Amino acid sequence: MGILSGFRVLDCSIAMAGPFAAQRLGDLGADVIKVEPVTGEWQRHVSAGGAGGNKINVSFLSLNRNKRSLAVDLKSAEGKQVLLDLVKTADVFLQNYRPGVAKRLGVDYETLSKINPRLVYVSMSGYGEDGPYINRPGQDLVLQGMSGAMLSAGRGDEAPTAAGQYLVDAITAYSAFEGALAALFHRERTGEGQLVQVNMLDAIATIQMQELSVFTIGNKPQTRSAEPHAHVYIRAPYGAFATSDGFIIVAFPKLKTLGEVIGEESFLTMEDEVDSWTKRDEIFAKTRERLKTRTSAEWLERMRAADIWCGPVYGYADLVEDAQIKHNGTFVEYDHPTEGRVKTPGFPIKFSKTPSTIDRGAPIVGQHTREILKEAGYDDARIAGLEQAGAVASGEL
Prior knowledge:
Elements: E1 8-12, H1 17-27, E2 31-36, H2 58-63, E3 67-72, H3 77-87, E4 92-95, H4 101-105, H5 109-115, E5 120-125, H6 140-146, H7 167-190, E6 194-199, H8 200-206, H9 209-216, E7 238-242, E8 247-251, H10 255-262, H11 272-278, H12 280-291, H13 296-305, E9 310-312, H14 316-321, H15 323-328, E10 331-336, E11 340-345, H16 369-375, H17 380-389, E12 392-393
Parallel strand pairs: 1-2, 1-4, 2-3, 4-5, 5-6
Antiparallel strand pairs: 3-12, 7-8, 8-9, 10-11
């Protein structure tokens, strides 16, 4: 039994951030009901990387394990009533509709909290619930650009490079996950639910606590170098460097030590807290040229022996086979009824008494509609009537 066993979550979200947050709650044992249109959630029809599947594409599969699917038409009176009935026994309601949509659908916090005052209502948005940007699309790369972070790395005369993961979506998902847990804890103490609001812009801004404070408090300008330095607020050398057979990371070593290891005599008399800033491009360029002369393995062995912070640059194939990743059990495998054997990232939080498990893979559309409605007190005749009217849909494997 997971640590959130006994809690019910109504997941009315789409795309990545909302479903990812709800999946984390499901991984901890919550009963997560994926409330989706009768034609299926948007992510079912859009496959990241072009990775399809037998019945479920990889994008949806990766973000919707440990959930049951309820396919319902919320634009119909009968379908909306189904959801309102489920709200009575829910603990968390999670949605990432565009601002104003929840109210138009009649599933906003004010409406649902009257039905269930203990409800924790998590509302996710791109920029906030109101303000000048509420009608803009909250898309990951767009928010990366607004975050300021893209101008903290790379060459000053080149276009910024995006993160190698859907960073803003993931950070927002974890913010919503954290908010839901905190609100549930408050409810356990007081008995009262509440509205929890999370937006992508604030999420990506506030994780830059240190960087933005250096700017706002320390008054240090955000100035990129001519060389592809990895962060404007970290002294040189700091970044990814080519070797004779690949790439390695080198993170702000003592210049004298680095000079001894790579054979760069000019580093031996440099001051770490002075020259590492004022000669950043020179140091980066000289390090780059020296590191081209040996293999990644050779440099990593030499640098680690000198206590220099360094590491390999992995691709996904390397990551999956890494010894520490295998030791940690970072990836999990399970059998899915339509997609076969699935290998996917597992659980980042480990509990000694209430471990996370995969009780079910991502569902097909409406796979659990009948099951969920029977739990809510609907009889077979009423369910059949809703299906016939198109208010709900049921799917079978």
